[in-house]
Amino acid sequence: MPATKDFNKFGLNEYVSSCDMGCHQCNRSVMNNSSLQSKGGEKEAFMSFTELMVWSSAFAFVTVIILVGNVLALIVFSTNKKLLRMRANFFLINLAVADMMVGVLAIPMYLYHFVAAWHKGNGVWMQRSYQISKVVDIFVGCASIFTLTVIALERAFSVCLPHIHRHLKNKVYYLHLGLIWLLSVLISLLRLFFEENMLSLEFFFYFMLVFFALALSITCSSYIVIWYRMKLRFARRDSKRRSTEQDKRLALMLFTVTIVFVLSWMPFQIINIVIFFCRPCENIPHEVAYFAKFLHYGNSSVNPIIYSFLVPEFRRTVTCLLRKLRI
């Protein structure tokens, strides 16, 4: 049987939403080791001031990197007409918006409650404001997941059916962008219903488990198809064909973005799954939980770096913008 008793109290029912596990789960672990109470019965902080400063600084630093990197990415995409003409970049722009929302909303809200819990105690994790932050967090997280899934499907469609893909109208892309945000809203509403005790923990957990597994399976399957089709294409086409090299670079870049996303999110998801089914596993070291949380948030900062290394046009535009700033 899964460990369901007081699960929400422990903050470990955030499968894919990425909000609860962090401090609140670590607080539970610390409480189990009686470190929240001194021998005299007085309340003690769940971590030292030094630890608080280290983790707060780490989250603040990644927030700055997220904002700078993704704002720069949006400027590059909006000023470079060549990049903007590539309709696949519509989804990269959408991903940059979702990542920027992580830096503007999700991390600051999480960091506020993280610090407040150090000052005021565990009651902070039961406040209404923290419940709202969890809904916001799952909203931006789902936006990223859905965007990466649609990116993979769009690339697979372009490789398998290039003649049909070439004649797709822009409104098809706009429709998919709208669908991404609509589904993200619907998923975050499920989280809200769970917070209001309108849904059971088991329903919410298994729904998110299936959702994440399905999105990951679709994404991986799409890239397997892309790899196989492009392997055949490279074997048939003339090596001088410029479009072949462009397709290859784009596929590599999108594949890298997805792999980094999976690797940075997977530790957090694995911890959630393990703790759901293994009650004794709640007592993991709090450093492990914080690091998994940091990796999860850190993913929103790496995509502009990937663009710079793997997209020459993006790199040239960034260099040009930086030169103008120096002038």
From TrEMBL:
The lineage of its organism: Eukaryota, Metazoa, Cnidaria, Anthozoa, Hexacorallia. It is found in: Cell membrane. Keywords: Cell membrane, G-protein coupled receptor, Glycoprotein, Membrane, Receptor, Transducer, Transmembrane, Transmembrane helix. This is Adenosine receptor A3. It is a multi-pass membrane protein. Residues 69-307 form the G-protein coupled receptors family 1 profile domain. CDD domains: 7tm_classA_rhodopsin-like. GO terms for cellular component: plasma membrane. The chain crosses the membrane at residues 52-77, 89-112, 132-153, 173-194, 206-229, 250-277. PANTHER family: ADENOSINE RECEPTOR, ISOFORM A, OLFACTORY RECEPTOR AND ADENOSINE RECEPTOR. It comes from Acropora cervicornis (Staghorn coral).
